[in-house]
Design brief:
By secondary structure, the chain is mainly alpha-helical. It contains 22 helices and five strands. It has a five-stranded mixed beta sheet, covered by helices on one side.
Length: about 550
């Protein structure tokens, strides 16, 4: 319904939004360090099957390029089936297939962080386009739509986390968003007597893609299908009472159910090992956890709501106040839609919020002992967008009471600018120059010091975890030693030149033992100068 002038403005703002999103990803991507174990496992799952872990090649002097080869695609074949087999009891494989393909075609022989960041950029831009178009339809205002997307999807801690972590979470958010759009379209067309084949082909494609992205998507799918199909059944009963099965809404429920069965069978055909995880792996873990009604479970649910408040309003606003703002905006917006008799918009809004909340409750309730916010990032984004939509409806309602158009417009601009500046300030304080962004960098690690010492040998003493593995691409010479002090360890250390300094990665409690071993082996007194912290390791300059 937009006129030509508004369409032009919408296009310009949309292009600026995308450019800002690209700049945001490249800015934060330039600060990215790989230290989180799951990110290391991304490389290991997609490319690491070509060789053993570097730390397993003990007592051999190698180069950083040898370590980098573990992270890189080096073979002349894509080897997607190798990835599939390795993931039989872990994740679904689509993200790792994509990671392998990007590595193979564009980063051959390199373990660059940009392999994952480029994949994330693609999904991020598609998500921005879809959300921008949705808010254009809801608000008919390019400025409002652009402001919402800028504040919730660009200058936003949770979104920065999703676009910079080298895992499938940005892909998961897009799959969840596209499934929601499919559900909203089903809701929009549910009164029609004739089913739309293209809509169910879309649902099939989105469903299979999501099922192959992350097991948590299966929970999201179940939550959405439950609330949307339940609503359609209510409409079917309302329309035909005792003969509800002849109503078009019921036919959509049947079609969605059939679509789910076909999507699930296709997923199993593409990745048969998902049955193991559902029967004996993650599915069993979640099922056992689901029947545990301890106080800790309800504490996890409370933690989930606390995190929503913190990522949206920071620590300056009490959690109770933050949640009142979130649900106040949402419920207020729903009431206004009801009063305006915009029932389909109201239903879509309500079902979207219910889907996100049901998913969050299930995930928090079945979450293992370590509470991980990353499983909720997508829902936090959806809730932020819903809160923004409710706030817009409330502001529009309040401003509509101002009779003079000029005064109303001026008031709209003033309030909009004040709110935007406030939200921007809050988000910037949460981001805190990247310190508040999970998995972006390890604040205690000084990468400059590590790079400065790349020319001298590095020794990793007693390596038993993967967190620092990406660091070990840096040096020109590196050797991994066991903590058992074997004859092979001694022979490797003796290859150091006389009076040669070296960098030592060691657990803090092993430093004394390591120094004694080196002094006995090299026949000279050594001193350890602390350089930096690398996750579980301390890094020293040994002279």
């Amino acid at each position: 319904m937009m006129d030509k002038k508004i369409k032009t403005r919408a296009l310009i703002i949309g292009i600026l939004l995308l450019l800002t999103g690209i700049l945001s990803l490249f800015y934060w991507g330039s600060k990215k360090q790989v230290w989180f174990c799951d990110e290391i496992y991304t490389y290991e799952s997609a490319n690491g099957f070509e060789q053993d872990w570097p730390m397993e090649q003990l007592d051999q002097w190698m180069t950083g390029k040898d370590v980098d080869a573990f992270f890189a695609a080096d073979k002349d074949t894509l080897s997607l089936n190798d990835i599939t087999v390795r993931l039989y009891n872990d994740h679904v494989p689509l993200y790792f297939w994509l990671f392998r393909m990007v590595s193979f075609f564009f980063f051959k022989g390199s373990g660059s962080i940009w392999i994952g960041l480029i994949i994330n950029l693609l999904f991020y831009l598609v998500f921005l386009i879809l959300c921008y178009n949705l808010f254009l339809q809801l608000t008919n205002s390019p400025i409002q739509a652009g402001a919402v997307l800028f504040l919730t999807c660009i200058v936003n801690c949770v979104m920065i986390e999703q676009i910079t972590v080298l895992r499938m979470y940005m892909m998961l958010l897009l799959a969840e968003g596209m499934l929601l759009l499919g559900g909203l379209q089903v809701l929009h067309e549910s009164g029609k007597s004739k089913l739309t084949p293209s809509l169910f082909l879309y649902l099939f494609a989105v469903s299979v893609t999501g099922f192959l992205t992350h097991y948590d998507y299966w929970i999201f799918y179940a939550a959405e299908a439950f609330v949307f199909c339940l609503w359609l059944l209510i409409l079917a009963f309302k329309r035909n009472r005792k003969k509800f099965w002849i109503s078009p809404e019921f036919r959509y429920v049947v079609a969605w159910t059939g679509n789910f069965i076909i999507s699930l069978l296709t997923t199993i055909w593409l990745f048969p090992y998902c049955r193991w995880n559902l029967n004996k792996g993650k599915g069993q873990t979640a099922l056992h956890s689901f029947f545990d009604f301890s106080d800790a479970k309800f504490g996890q649910i409370a933690w989930g709501y606390e995190r929503i408040s913190r990522v949206l309003f920071g620590y300056a606003v009490p959690v109770v106040v933050g949640m009142m703002l979130v649900f106040g905006c949402i419920i207020g917006g729903m009431i206004l839609l009801y009063r305006k008799k915009e029932y389909k918009k109201l239903a879509g809004f309500l079902l979207t919020v219910l889907t996100a909340q049901l998913y969050q409750l299930i995930v928090c309730f079945t979450m293992p002992a370590a509470m991980e916010e990353r499983y909720l990032w997508g829902e936090f984004t959806i809730m932020a967008l819903c809160t923004a939509w409710g706030a817009i409806l409330l502001l529009q309602s309040c401003l509509s009471k101002i009779k003079k158009i000029k005064v109303r417009r001026i008031s709209q601009w003033i309030i909009g600018i004040i709110l935007s500046v406030y939200i921007l300030t809050v988000q910037l304080s949460i981001i805190d120059f990247g310190k508040g962004v999970a998995y972006l960098f390890y604040e205690e690690k000084d990468m400059n010091l590590l790079v400065e010492n790349r020319d001298i040998p590095w020794i990793v003493y007693g390596a038993t975890d993967v967190y620092s593995c990406y660091d070990w691409r840096i040096p020109e010479k590196i050797c991994f030693l066991s903590s058992d002090i074997t004859a092979e360890d001694t022979a490797a250390v003796q290859k150091l030149q006389e009076n040669e300094s070296f960098v030592l990665y060691s657990y803090e409690d092993q430093l004394t033992t390591a120094l004694t071993f080196f002094e006995d082996t090299l026949g000279r007194k050594l001193s350890a100068q602390y350089l930096t912290k690398s996750t579980n390791f301390n890094v020293y300059l040994i002279e």
